[in-house]
Amino acid sequence: MPNAKFQGTDGVRGLAAGEDHPQASGSDPRTVFVENGVLTPRFVEHYVFEAGKWLLERASEKLISPAAVVLAWDPRDVGGDFSSACVNGLLRADAHVLSLGVMPAPVAAAYLAGVGAAGAVVLTASHNPADQNGVKILLSPDSMKPLPDEDAALSARVWASEWSAVEQTPESGHGVEAAAEARAFYLDYVTRLPNCWLREGDLARWSLVVDPAAGAWSGLAAQVLEELNPLSVCEVNALGDGRVNENGGVVALEGRRVIEGEDAGFLSGHAGARALFEAGRARREELKRGDGLAAACVLDADGDRGCALVYNPHRDALHVIDGDDALVFQARFLKEEGELPEDGAAALTIESDAGAAAALNEVGLRVVFTPVGDKWILNEARKWGDRFALGGEESGHTIAPGLLVNAVGEGRKFAAGDGLKSFLNTCAAVRSLFEEAEPEEAYAAVAAPFPRGFKRSYYAYHVERSRFAPGAAAWEAVAARLMESAESVFSGVAAPRFAPLEDDAGVMYLALEDEAGGPLGAIYVRNSGTESRTGVVLRGPLEWQEKLCAVGDEVLREILRHMKDDDAPGARAEACLLEALRECEMDATAVDAHLESDAEARFGAPVQAPGIRKEVLRGGLAREDEGSLSITPLGAWYLEQRK
Question: How many CB atoms sit inside 10 A of residue 469's CB?
C-alpha cells in the first residue's frame, strides 16, 4: 500500500467526505483514499503540504517568484473544508500563497506562468460529479502537469511523511489575495493576438450564451465575451444556480451531435441548450438570411474543457461542436490564414474519432496519438516545440499554443487546456465558413466537419482498478479474451495486433490493421484515471459496428468477471437494483426511492441513487424504455456471476 500512486489521469480525485464518513473514520486517510476512493480534508492537507514543499524545492531561482504557489478552486467545496485544508497545507510548506479563490484552472495556469511562481494547486474534480473533489498540480515555468514519474515521486513523499509530523509543522508561510490581479492578467492575455483569432467586430451580430456548469467560469467567462462586443451575452447555470456540472455543462453533451428543439427531456435538464434555443428563435428569420449567428460556450466546473453549440435556424436545432470538431475547424482556419507551422504536428488522444485524424492529415499536419488526458497533449507540445500546431481530445480538451507576456515583459509560447479560449477560436473558424458559403451550406459544414467513424464505449463501474495492470491475472484474462474474440470476428477483414502506447503501458491497445500495417480501427481497454471505472473503447469504420460491438461485449464480461469490487457500496447498490429489476420494471422515481431507503445499513455507506441508476444504464446492465427501467441479458448474466 505505501507504494501506491494516488494520482489518476489528472491529479487526485475521489468522493469528498468528512473524517467521520463510515469508510474513513478511524483509518489512515491515505489508505482510505487508495482503497475506497474517499477524499477527506486531512488527506488533502497532507497531500498539498508535500506538493507545496516539492514545488518549492524544484523551483528554479531564475523564476520571478520562486517562493510563491498559486492556489485556486472551483465552487463545489461549499463548506470550505477542503479549500481551508489546501491553504493550511501550503502555509505549513512555507509557501507564499497567491490565493485566487474560485477561479478557472486555465486562469490559474496562465497566472502561474505570468508571475513566475513555483507552481499551482487547483482544488477541483473538474467534470466529475459535484459530490467529488480533487487536487491538480501545475508545474513551473510553463504550467505543465506532472507526468507519471513525477506523480509517483509526489506520492512517495506523501507516504513517507506522517500526519502527526504535518500537523505539528507551523504555518510559517503567508498568503495574499490575488484574484483581481489574476482576472486582469487573464483578460489581457486571452483577448489579444495570437491567443484570440477574432478580429474587431467579428461578433457584432452574434448572440452568445455561456453555461459555466455552475463552476469557476461563472461571471468571468461572460466578462471576457462582453469585451469582444457581441450583440448579446446571456449567462445561465452560473454560480448559485445549483451544484457544479448539473443542469447543463459539457458532460451532458457527450455523445451528442445534434439537439432537436422537440427534445424536451434533454432540454429540461440543460440550461445552456434551452437558453440558446431562446436566443436563436428570437432571431430566427435574420439568422436564416445569414445576419449573424447564435452560439453557446458550454464548460465544466474548472473550465479546462468546453464545447460549442451553434443554433441552426433552418432546422431549429443545435449542432454540438466537440473537441474533435473544434480541432478540425481550427486547423482549417489556421491553414487559410497561413498560420500552420511548416511540417507541423497535431496531437490527438486515442479517444478521438478516426475521421478527425484523417481531416487533420488533409490540411498537412502529421497526427500523433497519445494516451487520454490533456497532460499528454501538453507533453507533445513540449516535444514538438514550434512545429506543434494544436491538439486535444473529443471530450472538449483542446490546446493551441499562444503568446504569454509575463510580469516583467518577457514573451514566450504558452499552451494550456482552456475551454473558453478554444471557444473563441472556434468562433473565428466557424465565422469564416459563413464568409465563404451560403448560410444553409455553412450550417451543413458546421453539422458535419468530417466523415465520422463508429465509436462506442462499454463501461464497468465499481471495479478494483489496481487489478488491471500489465502482468496481473485480470490483465492477462482480458488480453486473452480480446485477442481471441478479435481474431475470430475480424478474420479476413483486419489483422489485430497489440500496440502498447509509449507513454502509458496501462492502456491495453489492440490495433486493427490492413495487410500493409495501415490503421483501420482499434479496440482498447483502460482504467478511468479519476473514477472506479474501466472502459472498453471501440473505434473503426461505420460498417464494422456489429463486429466491434460483438468483441466489446465479450471483453466487458471478462472485466466484470475479474475486476468488480463486490464489497464497494456502489457495487452492492448496483446489484440490489438489478435484483429488484429482475422482479419487475421500475421508473426512475421508484428506483431512487428503492436505493435511498436505509442505504447505509444495506450498502455500508450512503449512495447517490441517480448516479447508480445512470451507471447501470451506461454499463448496459439495464435499459430504459418510455421511462421504465428493466434488466438486460448482460445484467442478468452479471447477477449470476456474482453468485
Answer: 13
Residue-range definition of the domain harbouring residue 551: 454-563
CATH of the domain at 607: 1.10.10.10
Q: What is the longest distance spanned by two Cα atoms in the chain?
A: 69
Q: Do residues 577 and 501 both lie within one domain?
A: no
Look at residue 529 and tell me whether its pLDDT is greater than 90: no
Q: Are residues 401 and 291 in the same domain?
A: yes
pLDDT digits (tens, 9 = 90+) for 415-430: 999 999 999 999 999 9
Cα(352)–Cα(440) distance, rounded to whole angstroms?
27
Taking residues 37-59, report their average pLDDT: 97
Cell numbers for 333, please give them: 482556419
234 and 142 within one domain: no
Which residue in the block uniquely carries the three cell numbers 479476413?
A: 492
Per residue in 70-99, pLDDT (tens digit) is 999 999 999 999 999 999 999 999 999 999
The reply to whether 279 falls in a domain is yes
- What lies within 8 Å, CB to CB, of 348 at 6+ separation is 324, 327, 356, 357, 360, 367, 368, 369, 370, 391, 392, 393
Classify residue 185: in a domain, yes or no: no
pLDDT tens digits, residue range 138-173? 999 999 999 999 999 999 999 999 999 999 999 999
360 and 233, same domain (yes or no): yes
pLDDT surpasses 70 at 1: no
The DSSP output letter for 586 is: E
What dihedral angle (degrees, nearest 10) is formed by the CA atoms of 316, 317, 318, 319?
-120
Q: What is the CATH number of the domain that holds 478?
A: 3.30.310.50
